[in-house]
From TrEMBL:
InterPro entries reported for this sequence: FAM173A/B, SAM-dependent_MTases_sf
SUPFAM superfamilies: S-adenosyl-L-methionine-dependent methyltransferases
Native source species: Astyanax mexicanus
Name of this protein: Si:dkey-190g11.3
GO biological process: methylation; regulation of mitochondrial ATP synthesis coupled proton transport
């Protein structure tokens, strides 16, 4: 009986010792995982928080197609505010729009430029600018505007666009609508929904 108890105790001590040896490995792995997540967040999301909370949220394929439907029958120059990895700009440029994407994250801008080069799209059709959209002083040269930003900035952005855009401009918001603008059209539902606004119907401040 004593021998059996001793064997059980030895097995238990061995199991505890083995678990204790595993803990540093688990702790190190967890730390590495957290540091990796923080690194990705700092590269892709952190730049958007310099002024207001605007994390990087890529457009889905369905959402991009909804935007293109809202641009049917239109042409000219298009600007994407917060262009991310450039997928919307590249899609619109393939349909004949002359596009510019403004993005504060230099890593995403570099990625979009490389992707455009690999697709054979010249900079005259798809241009990516590494700049804070709030520092872009004049958007009057664009008659098509697309935005995919956080809901907390939409009201502030609306005031900027009301001052700078012409009456012939169509603005398309992805996932988060402008709170006070009259909607001209909408496509999709849920996370893929997009709203179109015609500036001729938007009340602008008197100058």
């Amino acid at each position: 009986m004593e021998d059996s108890v001793e064997v059980i105790l030895q097995d238990k001590r061995s199991w505890v010792s083995h678990r204790s040896q595993d803990r540093p490995v688990i702790t190190a792995a967890s730390g590495a995982l957290l540091m990796g997540c923080y690194g990705l967040w700092s590269v892709f999301a952190l730049p958007g928080f310099r002024r207001v909370p605007v994390p990087y949220l890529p457009s889905s394929g369905v959402q991009t197609q909804n935007i293109m439907r809202l641009l049917r029958g239109r042409a000219g120059r298009l600007v994407d505010l917060g262009s991310g990895d450039g997928r919307l700009v590249l899609t619109a440029s393939s349909l004949g729009f002359q596009c510019t994407g403004y993005e504060i994250n230099s890593i995403l801008v570099s990625y979009a430029r490389v992707k455009a080069r690999l697709m054979g799209i010249p900079t005259t059709r798809a241009r990516f600018v590494n700049e804070d959209l709030w520092k872009v002083t004049n958007l009057s040269g664009y008659n098509n505007v697309t935005v995919f930003l956080a809901p907390g900035v939409m009201e502030v952005l609306a005031k900027k666009l009301e001052k700078e855009l012409g009456d012939d401009t169509r603005v398309i918001a992805c996932r988060y609508p402008f709170p006070d603008w009259p909607v001209a059209e909408t496509e999709g539902r849920g996370l893929d929904q997009a709203w179109a606004y015609d500036m001729t119907s938007v009340c602008k401040p008197s100058t």
